[in-house]
Design brief:
heterodimer; A: mainly alpha; globular; B: mainly alpha; two-stranded antiparallel sheet; 77% helix
């Protein structure tokens, strides 16, 4: 009888779209109404000095003005795809005509971002790294932003994570996560041969990691992916990137020998530094994606 | 072929060294070690920049450095001349003095396990500022503007108090508005010129002006880019994020943000004026006039806001708004003399405002976290060194002879003679603004030297040696800029002639 009832309860919860652990109330010890913090002091809506209606009117007026300017500019811009556009000049020509020969990459975009304009991409991967570090600085548990109450709540969350059945999510995660990660690896490794590359492949791997983490809980993830691993991977990748590109910039700018074989375009092991750089960027992006997820849910990786 | 010109590699080395240190610091667990790595890195870059400065000034040259194997329109490029080298020297020396003088604040206010993260951000911020100074490519500029934004937000929020979160959010929203406008500008500019590197863009823009095709997009793009840069560097109507952010951040962060980060955007703007849009185009499009008017407004309004403020750090933040107004007024004069004055004021303000923020931080600490000027009475007697530092900084900002601020004001006044139709406005507003400066700085100076009645003034809580060295260094720099300013202005004049070629 008890069994049946619990089955019914599960079914009902499933239909309602919420998951239920039987007798969940027993485990909830600390949840209470959050005390309202006065974060800004005097910045609340009531205290805004001046005429609110005027502000509303002005904000609409400025937006409309801005939209008008933008539309008239778009009207005057070169027509999309027109061969005589200013953007179709000698720069584009050389990228397309001698791109394969000079970079060894069949994917022109990869050749462009990782060889012709690799300095910008170095900056971009640093942006990702810094963004994660910023979130760590903000959200990682420390004595300022973490209280015992939150500790208790986290403990509850972990308890529910472990004891919930969630069969669809768990089976789905188990089946899909490896495939997604494998596909991400494929996209990264073929970045110089086909559309894709480090940024897109890394995002796919990150999605796979997030799926796995949300199915099995962060404790399980921590068996193979801790904050230490995360830092090590990021730092190792960025250092590799830095080293490869320093070598290439230094030799290029000073016209001294540059001896990285380009290989035969079309082979997987070709195009000089582009493949390792793609792998580095991919790993950084994957770690960043998962890092954001973990930090925003639990405040720890 | 075999000969390598090491000096031409310095810009590249400096940027990569700073970024590399930022990456490596992620492995460090101890704040003190991270601080040492940071200081050594900045010192090395300082030495390299001095060598670069001497070399470019001696050869009277401006050179480009190819980042990679592909020449200009295809690959990235750096570019360095006397202006860039001078700014790199200033940035590194101010960074070195500020961080070493303010290290105690960092170790006190940031949670120990997060101190290395703070230094990651400092290193990356320094690298990004150098990249903004040296870049010759507009998209690289955008990427490093992003790094600059992220890192400066991290510096503000590192304290972890609710106020600092509010300040950071405000700063982030307004900065992102600026970056967004800049990015829009870059996109449209690319689609009408077809280039991303400065020299090629300049040619294409001159062509547009000649043929009148895409004239409207060009006007709007110029507007967007300069509004973006103005927002980023807190020109008057866009200044609202400064007081909250600087007030709630660690004094070290406030000093660096106000002294250096705002300036790095302005220098990018100056490079854009000369290397992309060219002074004549700016003049035909009337952008300089707009900057001039807002600069004037900022000079007065910033000071007025500062007078109304009771908290010292917020007062200093509003004073930054006024000083940024001075710089934009110089740029807006549209003459090379005006630009020289603006560049000199960038240096003067960088060394003075960081000094003021450090001293102010020290006062606040001595008076037990109270921030109103009222509570600072006698603070200078408790901590004479910081008191002297604050006094020198305040006098320099007012424009007392022998100090850096005086020279820049003289140059602004001289420059006004050369720009027709603007002379009266410049001289009047300059006078008004100086009086206003005196009206809010002098009371605070008097307050810190007046003992509180009935309270025994205990002389000196012990001052850490690094703080003392840094304050003395800043005071000396102030006098050096105020007395031996000739060589520096000559370098600036030379570099502007080179840039404008």
């Amino acid at each position: 009888m008890g069994e049946k009832k619990s089955f019914w309860k599960h079914l009902k919860a499933w239909v309602d779209g919420e998951e239920v652990i039987l007798d969940a109330d027993k485990y909830i010890v600390s949840r209470s109404v959050k005390e309202k913090k006065n974060w800004g002091g005097r910045y609340s809506m009531e205290n805004i000095k001046g005429n609110k209606k005027l502000y509303g009117f002005l904000s609409v007026a400025i937006s409309v003005l801005f939209i008008g300017i933008m539309l008239s500019v778009v009207n005057d811009l070169p027509e999309f795809g027109n061969p005589s556009n200013p953007a179709n000049n000698e720069v584009m020509e050389r990228y397309l005509e001698s791109g394969i020969e000079e970079t060894g990459a069949i994917n022109f975009v990869a050749g462009m971002i990782l060889d012709y304009r690799a300095f910008d991409t170095f900056g971009e991967s640093n942006v990702l790294f810094l963004a994660v570090m910023c979130v760590v600085l903000l959200l990682k548990k420390d004595k300022n932003n973490y209280s015992e109450k939150e500790e208790a709540e986290n403990w509850e969350d972990d308890y529910f994570d472990e004891n919930e059945k969630r069969p669809i999510l768990k089976v789905g995660g188990k089946l899909l996560a490896p495939l997604i990660i494998l596909y991400g690896i494929y996209v990264i490794l073929n970045g110089h041969l086909s559309p894709g590359g480090g940024f897109s492949g890394g995002t796919i791997i990150g999605a796979g990691l997030i799926l796995y983490a949300s199915a099995y809980g962060q404790k399980k993830m921590q068996t193979f992916f801790t904050f230490r691993t995360f830092t090590l991977i990021c730092v190792a990748c960025l250092l590799t990137y830095c080293a490869c590109k320093s070598y290439s910039f230094f030799t290029g700018a000073n016209h001294v020998g540059y001896e990285i074989p380009k290989g035969i375009p079309g082979n997987i092991l070709s195009s000089g530094f582009i493949l390792p750089l793609n792998i580095c960027v991919g790993l950084i992006v994957a770690c960043t994606m998962y890092g954001f997820y973990a930090l925003f849910t639990k405040g720890d990786i | 072929m075999e000969h390598i010109n090491w000096i031409h590699n310095i810009p590249f080395f400096s940027i990569f060294l700073a970024m590399l240190c930022g990456i490596i610091t992620a492995l460090v667990k101890n704040g003190r070690l991270a601080f040492k790595i940071h200081s050594i890195m900045v010192f090395i870059i300082f030495v390299m920049s001095v060598i670069l400065l001497i070399s470019v000034v001696k050869n009277n040259e401006i050179f480009t450095f190819m980042m990679g194997h592909f020449p200009a329109p295809w690959g990235n490029e750096l570019r360095a001349g006397p202006l860039e080298a001078l700014m790199a020297v200033t940035f590194s020396i101010v960074m070195l003095l500020t961080v070493s003088g303010g290290s105690e604040f960092i170790f006190k206010d940031v949670v120990p396990e997060k101190q290395p993260l703070y230094f990651i951000m400092l290193n990356a911020l320094f690298g990004a500022m150098l990249a903004l100074v040296y870049t010759n490519d507009i998209f690289t500029a955008y990427v490093f503007i992003e790094i600059n934004t992220i890192a400066s937000c991290a510096l503000i929020m590192a304290k972890g108090t609710p106020q600092s979160m509010v300040g950071t959010t405000h700063y982030l929203v307004i900065s992102l508005l600026g970056s967004g406008l800049f990015l829009l500008g870059v996109c449209i500019l690319y689609s009408i010129t077809g280039h991303l590197l400065f020299p090629q863009m300049k040619e294409a823009i001159l062509e547009i002006i000649k043929t009148e095709q895409y004239r409207l997009p060009l006007l709007v793009v110029t507007g967007f880019m300069f509004i973006g840069i103005a927002i980023k560097s807190a020109l008057f109507p866009f200044h609202s994020m400064l007081p909250g952010a600087y007030h709630s951040a660690i004094p070290t962060s406030s000093g660096i943000l106000s002294g250096l980060v705002l300036k790095s955007y302005i220098i990018l703007g100056i490079k854009l004026i000369y290397c992309v849009f060219s002074a004549e185009v700016m003049h035909t499009l009337k952008i300089t006039e707009v900057l001039f008017v807002f600069g004037l407004a900022g000079m007065v309004m910033g000071s007025v806001y500062a007078m109304r403020e009771r908290k010292m750090k917020r007062m200093l933040a509003y004073s930054s708004v006024a000083q940024i107004g001075y710089i934009y007024m110089g740029i807006g004069m549209g003459s090379r003399v005006g630009m020289t004055a603006a560049c000199f004021h960038i240096l003067a303000h960088a060394i003075t405002k960081t000094l003021l923020f450090l001293c102010c931080g020290s006062f606040v600490e001595d008076s037990g976290g109270k921030e109103k000027i009222y509570h600072m009475r006698g603070a200078a007697l408790r901590n004479p060194l910081a008191g002297i530092g604050y006094t020198v900084g305040a006098l320099s900002m007012i424009g007392i002879p022998l100090l850096a601020g005086f020279i820049s004001k003289i140059y602004f006044a001289t420059a006004s003679v050369y720009s027709s139709g603007k002379m009266a406005a410049v001289l009047i507003i300059l006078g008004v603004s100086m009086v206003l400066n005196a009206l809010y700085f002098l009371p605070s100076v008097i307050a810190i030297w007046t003992p509180e009645k009935g309270v025994e003034m205990k002389p000196v809580s012990s001052v850490s040696p690094l703080f003392a060295v840094s304050i003395v260094g800043f005071i000396l720099l102030n006098f050096v800029l105020g007395v031996c300013y000739r060589p520096i202005t000559r370098i600036i004049q030379m570099s502007i002639e080179l840039l404008a070629q």
